[in-house]
Write a structure and sequence with these properties.
Layout: H1 12-27, E1 31-36, H2 41-49, E2 74-81, E3 84-85, H3 90-102, E4 106-107, E5 119-121, H4 128-132
Antiparallel strand pairs: 1-2, 2-3, 2-5, 4-5
Helix pairs in contact: 1-3
C-alpha cells in the first residue's frame, strides 16, 4: 500500500498549486504540513472500508479509483500551531480554504454532503472521468 506525503508525487499542475497553497498559507502566518498526496487504490480501499466493513467513523466517500488522491490531483494538510497539529480551529480552516479557492483549488471544507477540511484538490477543471481516461491538468 502506498500513501505519500510528498507533493512531488502530484501531477505537475497540482503540485504547483499545492506549493503555492503552502507558500500563501505561510505568507498569511499559517504553517501547514502535508499529510497525504498520492494514494494507491489499495490504500484508498482500506480508507473506504472504515465505517463500512471496518469499525470507525467514515473518513471518505471515495472508493478505489474515485479519489483525486488516486489520480495525483489532491493533497491533505493540517495547520500547525506551536508545533502541534490543529484540527479544531474552524477559523483557521476557513482561512486555509479561502487560500485554496483563491488559487483555483477545490477545498473539501466547502463540500455540502461530506465536509473534508483537510482536503484540497486541483484538476484544472477536469472531471474524474476525464482523469480516468488519461487527461492531465
Amino acid at each position: 500500500m502506498i500513501t505519500s506525503r510528498d507533493i512531488n508525487d502530484l501531477l505537475p499542475a497540482a503540485r504547483d498549486v499545492a506549493e503555492a497553497f503552502r507558500d500563501r498559507c505561510g505568507e498569511d502566518g499559517i504553517t501547514i504540513i502535508f499529510t497525504a498526496t498520492y494514494r494507491d487504490h489499495e490504500s484508498q480501499a482500506a480508507l473506504y472500508a472504515i465505517g463500512r466493513t471496518v469499525s470507525g467513523k467514515k473518513v471518505t466517500n471515495a472508493g478505489p479509483g474515485d479519489s483525486m488522491h488516486n489520480w495525483r490531483c489532491a493533497w491533505d494538510f493540517v495547520p500547525i500551531v506551536n508545533g502541534k497539529a490543529v484540527w479544531d480551529d474552524d477559523d483557521l480552516w476557513q482561512r486555509c480554504g479561502a487560500i485554496a479557492h483563491d488559487l483555483g483549488a477545490e477545498w473539501g471544507g466547502s463540500w455540502q454532503s461530506f465536509k473534508d477540511k483537510p482536503h484540497c484538490q486541483y484538476t484544472g477543471g477536469l472531471t474524474l472521468d476525464q482523469l480516468k481516461a488519461g487527461a492531465h491538468p
